[in-house]
Amino acid sequence: MKNKNRVLGALLGVAVGDALGAPLEFMSAEEIQATHGGSVRDMIGDGWLDVAPGEVTDDTQMTLAVAEGIALCPNDPVPAIGKRFLAWYDSKPKDIGNCCREAIEHVKRSGINDTSAAWHVAAASVHEKTGGQTAGNGALMRTVYPGLYYPPSEAHFAASVIAKMTHWHDESTMAVILYTMAISDLVAENEGIREGSGEIAWGKAQIERRMVNVRKRAEGKKITPSGYAINSAVCAINAIRDTGSFEDALVQAVNLGGDADTIGAITGGLAGALYGADAIPQRWVKKLDKGTVKRIEKLAEKAR
Ligand SMILES: [Mg+2]
User: Fold this and answer.
1) CATH 1.10.4080.10 fits 4-302, yes or no
2) 103 C-alpha to center of ligand 1: Å?
3) What would the pLDDT profile of 43-79 be if each residue is shown by its tens digit?
């Protein structure tokens, strides 16, 4: 059984993190402070994508495509997700990551889009063509739902299969699997585990335990808010470790700048699963598009 408030929190968390960070994408932390006279704590819109306040980007759009594909075909979700990726691509989204664009175009060219193999061949070919440049955060950013929907024993396998539709690199897959395990733990309705320590302290410790190999992979390297999956994951878990609320975690994450919307989305998934939907500031949720919130609520209801 899943805790519904945390499931909803995780999905809404992705969307608010994405929308909060989108105006800050590709800025440095210093530029953000100078431009906005301090840290950004509200949905301000603008930025290089010229988003409206509360407008979400590819991170949320792809998360919802994954989630709806899973909810429709839980036993073989890739074809249903792939269909949604193609429709989304054809809608000419404002932003799309390189690996996702390359893999989607490969699938379109191949004329076969209704099997898992077609997507995995596409991603492997992008990996080869780019000399292994497929460890970006584009799979991690859309990966919250497997941990919300499936039982823990199935979630990480499903997550890795879905991640590898576009991102073939082992470091992306590792980050996706560990993130999924952390999400699974956080939303599990298992009060017994939490006895004796505060629920939030337990959850924060559990994120660190699950994601310790992400930290290990980053050891000795400078952590920047770049589009590299390991860096983004470390930025997200640092934001949760260093703060005591959903709001503060997200504010820390997006004000790093760099790939701010994606780091916001990744942080928002974890922080929403940790603190629950009730902890998400209403002033942020109210800025989201109503249709997006409806889709999110429906998907949260479907989590098993
Ligand atoms: Mg984005």
Assistant:
1) yes
2) 17
3) 999 999 999 999 999 999 999 999 999 999 999 999 9
